[in-house]
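Project standup — Tuesday

K.O.: blocked on the structure for the chain from last sprint. Re-posting the sequence here as requested.
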Amino acid sequence: MNNIDIPSRAPLQIPVDDAVVPFEVAALDVRGRIVRLGPALDSILGQHDYPTPVSKLLGEAIVLTVLLGASLKFDGRFILQTQTDGAVRMLVVDYRSPGRVRACAQFDAEKAGAIGGEATTGRLLGNGHLAMTIDQGPDMNRYQGLVALAGETLEQAAHEYFLRSEQIPTKVRLAVAEEYSAAANGLRRRWRAGGLVLQFLPKTAERMRGPDLDPGDAPAGTAPHIVPEDDAWVEGQALLSTVDDVELIDPDLSSERLLYRLFHEHGVRVFRSGAVEARCSCSRERVENMLRSFPPVDRASMVEDGRILVTCEFCNAKYEFTPAEVGAAEA
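H.V.: unblocked you, prediction finished:
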């Protein structure tokens, strides 16, 4: 087979927010995606009056979901959900290809306040599980992977998910912060985030070998199965570990420039980027159909002062119906 010349160019200097850039470093047999979120993230978090630590945690979950959901090769959904006993009881992020995302959180304000300045991801989440679900549509089976949470960060949980569910060597970096800038009425606060996922995907199965999972109840003294990591993957991880949080969220640093900083010695190839937008899937018609699906007695119990009010947990949109519109009896 003849080698195909791939045209080279300088990395784009102009930063682009709310976009995912897939890339490949062929010399290291690694592929990945880098995402930068600005207005889309700020829009989602701005729809809720969450405490700052909760907003930051939800922002990390949004970045992780976009990084993983952007790999879908079909029109479907990637859903990340946590259920734990911590201050943040639940996180839900719903990614619909191509590039539409919504998210919400449920939390205990008293617990979150008690944690205060020590509100790390592990302390906010506590113990429970993280579920990642791929929904390929109504006529296809869903695929779901579960990871136990016991004080880990979302980065660590993602690593565990890929180790156990996908068995693909994977490393993830996430960063979320508020940006402050001068405005006519004082300081303006905006949320920004960035993330990078790197996966080792050699062309030969032999180079994909890794150690077995924990043997569990194997007899005492059983030697663990140890396979040294491939040198290319060791180098890829080492390069990724040099990325600072500020580089992932810097509004003046383009994704391509950051990738060039990391991998220019080996050559990095970028592919067509994909846009990300904050968009909820709720509508008056959907809410009405949902209400009509409830038993008559349940619909009747929802009537207050001659009307039914429904608020979307994702975008805080409010919908008002008369009982007659949804076939409910007046209380």
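K.O.: great, moving the ticket to review. DSSP finds ten helices and 14 strands in the chain. Residues 28 and 232 are 5 Å apart (CA to CA).
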